[in-house]
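User: tokens in, sequence out, please.
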């Protein structure tokens, strides 16, 4: 029984579609050849294209090529796709060896069966290898933890699981039932052909989606993170502060806000240079960050000014945390050109217990008033906001913090 013309049409659509996708990925790969993910995606497409060229060849090819090499090209393309995803995820390297191992084990079998007059066994072994390689891919994709790329990984992983089941079914008909898949279950043939067309279209789109999702997340991170110290900047702090305040207003847990400003930082820059000043800022940020809880937030909101959010922290608890940070910064020596320098900071603390309905601007003004008192009374000290003690300074404090 011959292959229906509609199946031949579907196969032609697959091959043309694949050639177009390969051209697109070739442009992407050559645009940034250093990107391993793009390069292996191109290699995957080229392996698939080799099979398409063999199938579309107008001349009669040796059986070693048509029945030995051709059925291997698609499993090889999915194995190379696994390498691309491993490069993208930067993990699961063991799966590369598993993919390669299955291909190497099948090589002698393909070569042995290439001499048979009926290609059903070679094609069915190709279906089995496609199923194996497609079953490995979701393991790579769905074991990743990156939130930004979760949606495209789920879409690709889910579809490849379904596609692998279809290919396993075709192999089972041949090797398990000892029947010809094309004639025994025609619906399975059409389903597999349509799934492959969708696969060729869906996977490249999902890959581009996944790459763009990571790029967008990285851009958002760069916008929200101070490039020098690696902590939040004002733009990144704003949504975090609003979220913590909304949580406080709902559950009424204590919430503390701390401001600190490095003392005489301009003199340090003038004496040792801005590179030395940057080194001190980096060291101070790391000293603070290493002593905070995972739920605490550190941000650089000015040249030498930092802000700390301490959720679920009472005023005495916040004072205890700041005392630890205060001593840690004072006790650290910074090796600068020609001298070892000790950095000190002035600190201002406030807590929602001072004003139950405080918003972000109000809390900042309170902490800023306390910081101003610490600066005015000699620097290198900690002051806590109190409405009675700070009323004059509170009214004339610096501009309130406005979230960007």
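Assistant: Sequence out:
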């Amino acid at each position: 029984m011959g292959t229906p013309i509609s199946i031949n049409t579907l196969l032609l659509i697959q091959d043309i579609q694949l050639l177009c996708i390969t051209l697109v990925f070739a442009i992407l790969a050559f645009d940034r050849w250093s990107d391993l993910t793009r390069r292996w995606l191109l290699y995957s497409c080229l392996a698939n294209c080799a099979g398409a060229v063999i199938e579309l060849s107008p001349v009669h090819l040796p059986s070693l090529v048509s029945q030995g090499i051709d059925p291997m090209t698609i499993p090889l393309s999915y194995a190379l796709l696994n390498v691309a995803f491993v490069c993208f995820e930067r993990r699961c390297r063991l799966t590369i060896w598993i993919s390669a191992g299955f291909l190497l084990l099948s090589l002698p079998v393909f070569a042995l069966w290439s001499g048979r007059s009926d290609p059903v066994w070679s094609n069915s072994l190709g279906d089995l290898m496609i199923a194996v390689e497609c079953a490995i891919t979701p393991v790579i994709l769905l074991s990743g933890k990156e939130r930004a790329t979760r949606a495209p990984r789920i879409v690709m992983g889910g579809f490849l699981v379904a596609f692998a089941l279809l290919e396993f079914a075709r192999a089972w008909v041949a090797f398990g039932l000892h029947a010809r898949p094309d004639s025994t279950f025609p619906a399975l043939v059409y389903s597999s052909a349509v799934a492959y067309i969708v696969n060729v279209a869906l996977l490249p789109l999902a890959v581009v989606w996944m790459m763009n999702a990571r790029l967008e997340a990285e851009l958002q991170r760069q916008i929200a993170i101070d490039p020098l110290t690696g902590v939040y900047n004002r733009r990144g702090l704003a949504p975090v502060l609003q979220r913590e305040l909304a949580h406080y207003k709902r559950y009424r847990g204590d919430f503390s806000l701390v401001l600190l400003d490095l003392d005489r930082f301009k003199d340090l820059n003038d004496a040792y240079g801005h590179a030395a000043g940057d080194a001190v800022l980096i060291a101070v940020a790391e000293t603070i960050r290493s002593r905070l809880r995972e739920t605490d937030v550190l941000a650089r909101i000015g040249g030498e000014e930092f802000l700390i959010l301490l959720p679920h922290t009472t005023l005495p608890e916040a004072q205890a945390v700041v005392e630890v940070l205060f001593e840690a910064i004072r006790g650290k020596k910074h090796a600068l050109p020609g001298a070892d320098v000790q950095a000190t900071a002035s600190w201002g603390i406030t807590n929602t217990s001072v004003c139950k309905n405080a918003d972000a601007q109000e809390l900042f003004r309170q902490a800023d008033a306390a910081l101003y008192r610490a600066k005015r009374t000699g620097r290198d000290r900690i002051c806590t906001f109190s409405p009675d003690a700070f009323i004059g300074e509170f009214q004339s404090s610096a501009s309130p913090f406005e979230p960007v």
